[in-house]
Design goal:
The chain has 252 residues and is α+β, with helices and mostly antiparallel strands. It is 24% helix and 48% strand. It starts with a helix and ends in a 12-residue tail after the last strand.
Length: 252
């Protein structure tokens, strides 16, 4: 690659690192490689962007221990970019490797942002609607490919509301085996009926078989999950149709 092209890439990469670092609440290390040249810049194009970061904190309490991602080619509206607004002419596809620690996961689960995204679950149990309202949840990563959940919910059934605490131990789905629930125990409350357990298992199966998730203009799917002692490693494929308003400060 000619030297002048490499200088252009270095300049854009350094500017991108400065902009994103300024928008993050905390950052230990970040490296961005914008793969483009002068002609493509003028045409609003780049061959791709590679990002590697450690200790990234967004929205105050959401921390990522490590992330590595690579996008495919990018096409943006050059004129809007000149005024600080990034508008994608085509969706961006990325593949990311993300590491989350047990401490960071539990920190995020107590954040206002994550709590506001947690839905109340409604189940049809023999024609009766039973709902769960999450109150607390903790995640533990003991190793051996297992994830332990401990939480409290408000259980609403038959016109009554009562607290329920539980622990659950599961093995996420891998390439060689389906997701496995090893145990589920009620630690506070009067327990739950067999019919409700059956409905819960069916709901859990539906959630684990969802092919993709969507948040604003981001569509993503978890392709692989590895559980190690104290950390969770995710391989995620993402399609970004447009820069969400809530992430506009992180735009390249």
């Amino acid at each position: 690659m000619p030297d002048e092209h490499r200088l252009e890439e270095q300049f854009l990469s350094q500017e991108a690192e400065k902009q994103i670092s300024n928008q993050l609440d905390e950052v230990e290390e970040i490296e961005i490689d914008v793969q483009t040249d002068l002609l493509k810049i003028l045409q609003g194009q780049a061959d791709g962007v590679a990002v590697a970061g450690q200790g990234l904190v967004i929205k105050e309490d959401i921390r990522i221990q490590e992330i590595k991602l690579q996008t495919d080619s990018i096409a943006i509206n050059t004129f809007s970019a000149l005024f600080g607004q990034i508008e994608l002419n085509e969706p961006i596809n990325t593949i990311a490797r993300v590491i989350l620690t047990e401490v960071d996961i539990n920190r995020a689960l107590t954040s206002e942002f994550v709590r506001s995204q947690m839905p109340n679950f409604e189940l049809n149990v023999d024609g009766e609607i039973v709902s769960f309202e999450p109150e607390e949840i903790q995640v533990f990563l003991p190793g051996d490919g297992k994830i332990e959940f401990r939480g409290k919910v408000l259980l609403k059934e038959m016109g009554n509301t009562r607290p329920l605490a539980y622990t659950a131990l599961l093995r996420p789905r891998t390439h060689s085996q389906p997701a496995m629930l090893e145990s589920f125990n009620c630690t506070e409350g009067d327990g739950i009926s067999i019919e409700l357990v059956t409905a819960l298992m069916q709901k859990a199966k539906e959630l684990m078989n969802i092919p993709y998730f969507q948040w604003e203009d981001i569509v993503f799917s978890i392709k692989d999950m590895q559980v190690e002692t104290g950390s969770l490693i995710l391989m995620i494929e993402t399609q970004l149709k447009q820069i969400p308003a809530s992430l506009s400060g992180l735009s390249l």
